[in-house]
Amino acid sequence: MIVLVGFMGAGKTTLGAALAQRLGLPFVDTDDVIAARHGPIADIFASAGEATFRDLEEDAIRETLTGPQAVVSLGGGAVETPAVRDLLAGHEVIWLRISLQDALARLGDDPSRPVLNSANLAARFAARQPLYAQVATKIADAMSADLLDALDVT
Ligand code: S3P
Fold first, then answer.
1. How far is the CA of 45 from the centre of ligand 1 (A)?
2. Which are the contacts of 153, defined by CB distance < 8 A and separation ≥ 6?
3. Structural domain boundaries in the chain
4. Whose CA is closest to 91, among 63, 115, 72, 112?
5. Is any ligand 1 atom within 6 A of the Cβ of residue 76?
6. Ligand 1 contact, 11 CB (< 6 A)
7. Cys-Cys link to 10, which of 2, 96, 106, 112 (CB 3.0-4.6 A)?
8. Does the domain spanning 2-150 belong to CATH 3.90.650.10?
9. How many A from CA of 7 to the centre of ligand 1?
10. Residue nearest to atom 3 of ligand 1 (CA)
């Protein structure tokens, strides 16, 4: 599997779809898998809470990573779950790295992303950086103009 990780707003879905097309592979966004099964992510956070969302996310990622070969995009917080980090071992994992400032500028005020409204967003961003680094086999600059070519993934 080729897996894209990184903070919200890094462009994982856009890059993942382009990469999948280039490689002739299916593209799976695990947020879409969760939403297809359980409804909109913001609703899951509101009604069941983040811990429940993380459980559903772990299930979706486990199934996707044991399914057919694909380019897979994970939600920005997936790496916070230790079991998800374990599941990523042995896969090609691209960290699409972005600064918090650039991510926020791209995202604006997006009600579909509940974690954006966390009181401790900067701390969560900081805490995630070493986790992305831990799982990544490759790092790409999310703001790079020629991202797809720079990736050199075959
Ligand atoms: C989250 C990121 C979202 C989604 C959920 C939680 C996070 O995915 O999984 O809203 O904790 O950063 P994107 O990174 O695709 O926005």
1. 11
2. 2, 19, 23, 92, 94, 138
3. 2-150
4. 72
5. yes
6. no
7. 96
8. no
9. 8
10. 75
